[in-house]
Amino acid sequence: MSDTRLLAIDWGTSSARVYELDARGVVVRERRAALGIQRITDGRFADALATLCGDALSQAVPVLACGMIGSRQGWVEAPYCDCPAGIDAIAGALTAVPGTALLIAPGLMVRDAAGVADVMRGEETQILGALPDRPVDQSLYVLPGTHSKWAIAGAEGILTFTTFMTGELYAVLRDHSILGRLAVAGVDNGAFDRGVRMSLREQAALTHDLFSARTLPLTSELASEGVGDYLSGLLVGAEISAARAWAAGNSAAAAGVTLVGEAALCERYRRALTIAGVETVQGSPVAAARGLWRIAQHAGMLPS
Amino acid sequence: MSDTRLLAIDWGTSSARVYELDARGVVVRERRAALGIQRITDGRFADALATLCGDALSQAVPVLACGMIGSRQGWVEAPYCDCPAGIDAIAGALTAVPGTALLIAPGLMVRDAAGVADVMRGEETQILGALPDRPVDQSLYVLPGTHSKWAIAGAEGILTFTTFMTGELYAVLRDHSILGRLAVAGVDNGAFDRGVRMSLREQAALTHDLFSARTLPLTSELASEGVGDYLSGLLVGAEISAARAWAAGNSAAAAGVTLVGEAALCERYRRALTIAGVETVQGSPVAAARGLWRIAQHAGMLPS
User: How close is the nearest chain B Cα to the Cα of A112, in Å?
Assistant: First the structure.
């Protein structure tokens, strides 16, 4: 008999990651597949689920997913929970996929200071997984990515969050703008740091400062091999600067943050945050699995 | 005999505009061709010049060009003049193209508050052309475009300027980002105004606010037909907000500006500037021709 007690799936836009957890909530098997919702054609989600889970699916083990699989473009739409949201609220709002054992965790929605909605799908589960067993205070969680998220979370769950389009801006500028055309492949941490510092200064103005990724190589003050990292630094620096103002507006101290996500990207943010004087802690590399385990516990999906 | 006394060419990246001016400096003929420097292959600039000028070239009329034709990627590089730059400095720095009657006006370079170079090529000539005959005070000139320029200019010429990558950011986000994928073709001035207001508020943070072009349609608070104009408004608003801070840092009153450029784009900026409480005047539609005429006069290229 298998030792798997929960099949947990972090099911995103481009890929899916499947975790099998044992009775103690420990990940005993993990695999990744290029079966993100954008790559599934003709609504063949059931086939994708079978491929992702393999034999485990036939063992009457509960299956819980988070991420874009619950979006309007996914399999079945799981409505957003409003923030602040504790784990009980999230566990109480799972959406079942008819004809399968699969349950989908909801995303979260919050209104920013301008009254505009902000959303996340999947990151809420990673934050729940990154929380300590007994959180004492509210603290800051940073999830770098295409759409970077900053969240304030603690004992009561997730209080609020905000999104920055840093990764997407980098990708479109790198691949499609005049700045990208100037860039030559290369790694230049010094150029990254310089971009971060540029965006952290008080008079920083991103749509102007981006042009410096064109003029610095023109005047031979930046090597073409550094343009990509300099551009990345400008964007990450602008994110940190705006996120600090956001944290202050939400009465959160921004002296330290927990980074959650892919190791290389978190390391890049750690560099930038250090320049900004912000201490960082690296969160669990299996935060999504841990978050799904906690949600499943609270939803009564696991034998107690 | 032809009445043409100067062939003036505004020779940019994607297109070129040729003006024939008579003895009074009035444009008597004007044509446009898709012969920008990016479209000229194998260095066939001489052929392009012949095509652009036609018969006029054989009449021993002086020929003066401005714009990217003088860049490193152009025909012959015309070094940048440092700002502040009066018309005499610009007229004294023309670069001759060997074997032709063509002279190329220099671009301008300035250092921003962070010590980083900013550059323009072609806009300096439009600004000189947009200046009144006897400028009294320094005032603000705005040239919207792929790389929008704001300049402070007056009797002594061009004091300083700054670049915003507004047009390029709009194009890459519209064509290559998730925001563009959400957009449906349409014109929505209300959505544009809303984007402008969003970026003009005190806590605006562009890389966060851009995400509202995704969430507002998601929550049915913005029609898909409005996403493109809303995005444009966010970017133009961010430009105006940053440009105001820049103007204040250069002791320039930003209560009124002269807009120079293509009519539809200037109208869009007029809308946005009106929301920001800034009065606008539309500059000459043939500012480049007028600027080239003035430079030619100061360079002694015209019979006095």
Answer: 10
User: How far is it, in rounded angstroms, from Cα A158 to Cα A141?
Assistant: 10
Three-state secondary structure call for residue B154 = strand
- pLDDT, tens digit, 9 for 90 and up, residues B22-75: 999 999 999 999 999 999 999 999 999 999 998 888 788 999 999 999 999 999
**Cβ pair A80, A119 in contact under 8 A:** yes
Question: Do the Cβ atoms of A208 and B163 come within 8 Å?
Answer: yes
Q: Are the C-beta atoms of residues B20 and B27 closer than 8 Å to each other?
A: yes
Domain ranges of chain B: 6-131+287-298, 166-282
pLDDT band at B1 (very low <50, low <70, confident <90, very high): low
Q: What count of other Cβ atoms lies within 10 Å of the Cβ of residue B76?
A: 16
Gap between the Cα atoms of A244 and A150, Å rounded:
10
The verdict on a CB contact (< 8 Å) between B207 and A206 is yes
Q: Taking CB atoms and an 8 Å limit, are B164 and A211 in contact across chains? A: yes
Q: How far is B250 from chain A (nearest CA, A)?
A: 13
Contact criterion met (CB < 8 Å) for B221 and A245: no
Q: Enumerate chain B positions whose Cβ falls within 8 A of a Cβ in A.
A: 72, 112-114, 116-119, 147, 162-166, 168-169, 172-173, 175-178, 198, 201, 203, 205-212, 215-216, 218-219, 221, 235, 238-239, 242, 245-246, 249
For residue B209, give the chain A residue with the closest CA.
A164
> Could you read off the pLDDT of A275-301 as tens digits, one per residue?
999 999 999 999 999 999 999 999 999
Q: Do the two domains A6-122+287-298 and A166-282 of this chain adopt the same fold?
A: yes
CATH 2.60.120.10 fits A6-122+287-298, yes or no: no
pLDDT digits 0-9 by tens, B276-295: 999 999 999 999 999 999 99
User: Cα(first)–Cα(last) distance of chain B, in Å?
Assistant: 19
Predicted confidence (pLDDT) at residue A90 exceeds the cutoff of 90: yes
Looking at domain B6-131+287-298, its CATH class is alpha beta
CA distance B35 to A201: 41
Determine, for residues B116 and A205 on separate chains, whether the beta-carbon distance falls below 8 Å: no
CATH superfamily of domain region A166-282: 2-keto-3-deoxy-galactonokinase, C-terminal domain (3.30.420.310)
Residues in A closer than 8 angstroms to B212, CB to CB, are: 112, 114, 116-117
Confirm if A60 and A138 have CB atoms less than 8 A apart. Answer: no
The nearest CA of chain B is from the CA of A173 a distance in Å of 7
